[in-house]
Amino acid sequence: MKEKTLYMIGNAHIDQVWLWQWTEGFQETKATFKSALLRMEEYDDFIFTCSSASSYEWIEKNDFKMFEEIRARIKEGRWVIVGGMWVQPDCNIPSGESFARHILYSQRYFREKFGVIAEVGYNVDSFGHSGSLPQFLNKGGMKAYTFLRPGPHELALPSELFYFRSKDGSKVLTQRIPFEYCSWGKELEMHAKRCADELRFGINKGMCFYGVGNHGGGPTKQNIESIRDLNKKMENVDLKFSSPNEFFDDASKDNFNIPEYTGDLLHHASGCYSAHINIKEWNRRSENKLASSEKFATIADKLGLQNYPCDYKLAWKNVLFNQFHDILAGTSLKEAYDDARDMYGEAISIANRNENYAKQAISWNINIKEEENLKPIVVFNPHGWEVEMPVEIEALVPSNKPFKITDEDGIEIPYQVVQSSAYCNGRGRIVFVAKVPSLGWRLYKLYSQATPSAFPPLNADDIYMENKFHKVLFNDKTGSITSIKDDENREYLSSDGGRCEVMKDYSDTWSHLVRSYRDKEGQFELSSIKLIENGAVRSTIRVSLKYNDSAILKYYTIYRDIPGIYVKMKIDFKEKHRVLKVKYPVNFIHRKGSFGSPYGFVEREMDGEEYPYQNYMDISGTILGEDILGVARTSGFSIINDSKYSIDVLNKEIGFTVLRTPIYAHHDPKVPNDEEDYEYLDLGESSCNYMIYPHKNTLQSENIPKKAWEYNQPLTALFETYHEGNLKCKDSFLKFNNKNLILGAMKRSEDDDGIVIRIYEPFGMEERCEISIPIMDVNYTACFKPCEIKTLKIKDNGEVLECNLIEDEI
User: Fold this and answer.
1) What does DSSP say about strands 120-122 and 144-147: parallel, antiparallel, or unpaired?
2) Rounded CA gap, 50 and 209, in Å?
3) Distance of alpha carbon 618 from alpha carbon 7, whole angstroms
4) For strand 520-523 and strand 171-176, is the pairing parallel, antiparallel, or unpaired?
5) CA 151, CA 198: separation in Å to the nearest integer?
6) In Å, how far are 99, 333, 572, 682, 688 from 679, measured between CA atoms?
7) Would you state the pLDDT for residue 740?
């Protein structure tokens, strides 16, 4: 008997979109699946492995006969389903809720159509893997995971076979497969032998993936014949036609002391987190729109105002498909992004339509008494906690007729009329600060022909603005922020912040083998700086910048009663093979960097390398000088964004990446030719929105993750009229008594027998929470492990069940 076993994994990696559009990927999927079925007829020991529920749905909708053949082979055990996700997604950029939906819709699809679920997570072509993935995999019915990238030259691991562990304690037995996830249509002797050579250090079992891939194809006759012949030649290694399922089952029984690894699996292709700004924006926007929309649709349904819509699954499938690693990474050909735009557009339209129906149904049933000159405004909060933040609404605002705004109890609220999106007389945009209960609504009242109280403007001029939280001073020579102080005059910047720097970048679209962008070519210079808004609610300074033929308009806004500095950038970038970064040097020692990740966070070294992050990044430490005075305390500086995913921190300087301009779908070692024309990513007009949030307490005390959620899903408002109704002017659908926990999602259950809520713990703390839903007569206490994601089903009869991500009771 041979001492070692090489599990030969017949597969066909199919990039559904890459250097081709999805229609070509669709056709190649059919051809590949047909080829695999033919191999099964020809070789009774051949086993085929394939992931991605979306591929199976293509076959179901296009070739029912082939679909039935696949179903039979799955039942036979020779066609093995892996992955448990809609596609092989990018594994850092999607939100936590997106990963939950990948698993929910895919595993339910596999169970409904084939009577099985995937037991092995399978993202062999993805460019990196979030450290929170093991929890998603565990709670999605998967006990193992396999990947290829990053390779050994990019990340040293304690072993190629290890337990991948997330912060909540979840772990999956994981194999980094050697060399390739596919092969070509020739003999496999060299490939199999080098995979066999990896069986060392006490490991006597490993996987060897074979089959033509990327554009599909799958195992060939020559592949299979060469494995049979080679198995006779190899003295110490048994080549076994097998599947990842069998490999992990057998490997888990070995006596080998398998090590653990906790943290992200990086770096490969660092440039994919900043390539193609539009796909990143569409992705974040659709995730947030769908999450918010489902919450209000659930409320309207439970209030008996309208039925829960049936098209959310279609919208989510569009989003999930476009999270395929070569689409969301920005590394596909240009035409693929026309398709992605349309699919995201459909998803966002579904979300917007359903959310509008739900909100208008709710507001129409609020009891609003008739009053002279009253125009009611209803403000909605999509979060599981009370939120106080700015609200903007377009309105008819006659310039010669004063008005005032009050809350539902008649207490007057400061407001400000700012530039409308429509440039005409009688139209304006109103901004005021609203305070709305958790997952609820609140009535505000606009009275026309009423004299408002005199609320003084903020203290501001062309280079200075101040509220009760921050004092912000600009450099009148550069347009950068030269100082940010809090109300105790503590300085948060060590030098000018907000600098827009241009870095040289001749790498390919992925930035293969690039860890950082530090080759500075130049910096945007000041054209003008001017205070353009100042009133009772907010002040805005506009900074105009130029670099060669490129231009940036930056709008810095502070609010009287809200901490943080809001920044909007309008960009016209014309520099090819460049990176645009915004830099903020902080005034801290003993620094610690925290980065948002899918339903979690990760702490990283501040080594200047480009890292993925989600909606926030924070540096916390001690302000320089306070340690000498003996009054040191933890303070911090956060960057909160609405569509960016790439950032670096070198020592104490944050450099978040706004955009890159490589050639579309350029892959090393192909070298561009100066005589040819190319399409470049992200040239021309674009935008970037973010918030600077200096804070004089800890990340947890300030609850930065919640601030990031509020920034990404802001309060929204709509005008109503007066009418009778059975709803209060101010109410909350759901309440937590724990201020740290975050409500990520609320929806109708897939079994249509209640609602599902998803909550996570964002700081690595054990927590206890009482959850109250008065309309359903629900009061439930849940206990959370550090960083735990918890899914609860609240049945229509009020019973509360803890579920996994497939919405099966635990």
Assistant:
1) parallel
2) 12
3) 44
4) unpaired
5) 13
6) 32, 9, 17, 10, 22
7) 96
| DSSP category for residue 369 | -
Give the number of other CB atoms < 10 A from CB of residue 612: 25
**CB–CB of 542/530 below 8 Å?**
yes
Beta strand 459-461 pairing with 412-413: unpaired
Q: And the tokens for 77? A: 């055990």
* Count of residues making up the chain: 810
Q: Which two tokens stand for residue 290?
A: 């769908």
In this prediction, residue 449 carries a pLDDT of 87
CA 707 to centroid of chain Cα atoms? 16
DSSP string, 164-226: EE-TTS-EEEEEE--S-S---SS--HHHHHHHHHT--TT--EEEEEESB-BB--B--HHHHHH
CA distances 343 to 59, 66, 321, 336, 768, Å, are: 20, 27, 9, 11, 40
Residue 306, Cα to own-chain centre: how many angstroms? 30
Sign of dihedral through CA atoms 803, 60, 752, 311? positive
DSSP H helices, 388-495, are none
Which residue numbers in the chain have pLDDT < 70?
255, 398-400, 627-631
Give residue for tokens 């080759």. Answer: 519
In whole angstroms, give the CA distance from residue 765 to residue 771.
18
Q: How far apart are CA 612 and CA 367, in angstroms?
A: 47
